[in-house]
TrEMBL record:
Database matches in InterPro entries: Spore_Ger (IPR004995), UPF0353/GerABKA_families (IPR050768)
Positions in coiled-coil regions: none
Annotated GO biological process: spore germination
Keywords noted in UniProt: Membrane, Transmembrane, Transmembrane helix
Family: Belongs to the GerABKA family.
Membrane topology: Multi-pass membrane protein
GO cellular component assignments: plasma membrane
Region ranges (Disordered): 467-491
Protein localization: Cell membrane; Membrane
Superkingdom of the organism of origin: Bacteria
Keyword Transmembrane helix set for record: yes
Record's protein name: Spore gernimation protein GerA
TM spans (from-to): 282-303, 375-393, 405-430
Length: 491
């Protein structure tokens, strides 16, 4: 027993020797009228008000002779009496205060006095909607879980936490509804996250890349959102959410391609309007990818497809352009991407000015200098504008990238090249999965019932089943016959 105590004291002494190398580590002894004790903590992690009012004041005002008695005196919920050196290390680095009866004493009392500094809940910035709730997630995992729990006050809501990152020790929570979510999906997420071996995790985007089915795909395979109402809605469908401490974006999976083109505001509007807006988005994305490649393909290989009256305008527009259509299109597309990056990296007001002024000045100057045609300038500008209709930012980046392979194939093989590139893209999407589930569902495999909330948003009364690809334990959302009834109470 003596040998074990000596080893324990030696390990605590080594731990404190490491902590003392940091100037924010505080350790001192205090003599009261009835006992002497030592207190240790990191002053940058501890709330001074909690330390003075909740911990030190009861210690000095009440009589106690042992740590067991002190534990019952202190009005703190998170308090541990331990001899475990690893637990001491963990809790001190989380903002706990350590109280012992000797300098390197064991056991010791660990009292929660965390300093919690977090951004207040604000409006959504990326997924802003005119209609609907105006709350967004913040960087605090506790605040984010609170935003979810107050919208889902049910006992079936399950939250499983763990820490990842050898250096950062980032807290992470996996959230799902027991009895609805498929246990296989939950196990897949838990297993993949548990197997992550990395020094640091600073944002949920790290998790997205490391648990994705295909790391080499430009398509995001987890949906990220900053809206609590969207997370709650998707949890009710049977999906799984992942919250990372320090990140204002929550991951959702498994997901499908069509979900990235559906705005959550669609559910706050009439189903006819929502369906119309979804069709506009899908058309805009297709136009954004194909407009410039089709221009290059037609001018290089298929100019006979252009009507005679319109052909004269093309000839006049390109009469003084010294470069082929491919280089002309590449120059304008590259300019658009430069303006986007410059606007995104600069402060908000300056970025907006750079985007507007830069686009006008460079576009006008390039046409007057004969480097580009005014017709292509209009097409590229419309394609860039169409790409902004994508509701999810990460998918918008993918759409920006896809234009360049299509442009290269159009230059090499014309319209046949565009079809060939589309075949490669379709093959990749057919093979892609999200947490083991088909990424192209309900297109492939075809599922008619899931099409009710894909390209169109049908009335809620018709969406009485949860997505089949999730294999939920409760497939039915509502009774189909009762959902169609619309009777007043006096009928």
């Amino acid at each position: 027993m003596y040998n074990q105590n000596w080893k324990r004291k030696d390990s605590i002494e080594k731990l404190f020797a490491v902590f003392r190398s940091s100037t924010d580590f505080i350790q001192y002894d205090v003599n009261t009228s009835h006992i002497k004790y030592w207190i240790s903590y990191f002053e940058t992690l501890v709330d001074v008000n909690i330390l003075n009012e909740t911990i030190l004041k009861p210690i000095h005002s009440k009589y106690w002779q042992s740590l067991e008695e002190l534990k019952n005196i202190l009005p703190v919920k998170d308090i541990f009496l331990t001899i475990d050196t690893d637990l001491m290390k963990e809790k001190l680095l989380e903002g706990f205060v350590m109280i012992s009866l000797s300098e390197y004493g064991s056991p010791c009392l660990l009292v929660n006095a965390k300093l919690n500094k977090a951004r207040e809940v604000t409006l959504p910035e990326v997924e802003f909607t005119v209609i609907g709730p105006k709350e967004a997630f913040v960087e605090s995992i506790e605040s984010n879980i609170n935003l979810i729990r107050k919208r889902l006050p049910i006992e079936e809501l399950r939250i499983r936490t763990l820490k990842i990152g050898r250096l950062t020790q980032t807290r992470l929570a996996i959230i799902y509804i027991e009895g609805i979510a498929d246990e296989e999906n939950v196990f897949t997420v838990w297993q993949r996250i548990s197997n992550i071996q990395i020094d640091q995790v600073n944002d949920s985007s790290y998790i997205t890349e490391m648990i994705s089915d295909n790391h080499n795909s430009p398509f995001p395979q987890m949906l990220d959102t900053e809206r609590p109402d969207r997370v709650v809605s998707i949890l009710a469908e049977g999906k799984i959410a992942v919250i990372v401490d320090g990140s204002p974006h929550v991951l959702i999976g498994p997901t499908t391609l069509v979900e990235f083109f559906a705005s959550f505001e669609d559910y706050f509007l009439n189903w006819i309007l929502s369906s119309f807006f979804r069709i506009i988005r899908l058309f805009a994305v297709s136009f954004s990818i194909l407009a410039t490649p089709i221009y290059v393909a037609v001018l290089n290989y298929h100019y006979e497809l252009i009507p005679t009256d319109l052909l004269n305008n093309f000839v006049t527009s390109r009469r003084e352009v010294p470069v082929p259509p491919f280089l002309e299109a590449l120059f304008l597309e590259g300019t658009i991407e430069l303006l986007r990056e410059a606007g995104a990296r600069l402060p908000t007001k300056v970025g907006q000015t750079i985007g507007i002024v830069g686009g006008i000045v460079i576009g006008t100057a390039s046409v007057e200098a004969g480097l580009t045609s005014n017709i292509l300038l209009i097409i590229v500008a419309l394609a860039a504008l169409a790409s902004f209709t994508t509701p999810v930012y990460k998918m918008g980046n993918t759409i920006r990238l896809l234009r360049f392979p299509f442009l290269m194939f159009a230059e090499m093989y014309g319209l046949l090249g565009i079809v060939l590139c589309f075949c490669f893209l379709a093959t990749h999407l057919l093979r892609l999965t999200s947490l083991g589930r088909p990424f192209l569902e309900p297109i492939y495999p075809p599922r008619i019932s899931d099409l009710k909330d894909a390209f169109l948003r049908m009335p809620f009364s018709m969406m009485n089943e949860r997505p089949k690809q999730l294999r939920t334990e409760q497939p039915k959302r509502m009774d189909e016959e009762k959902s169609r009834e619309n009777k007043d109470i006096d009928e």
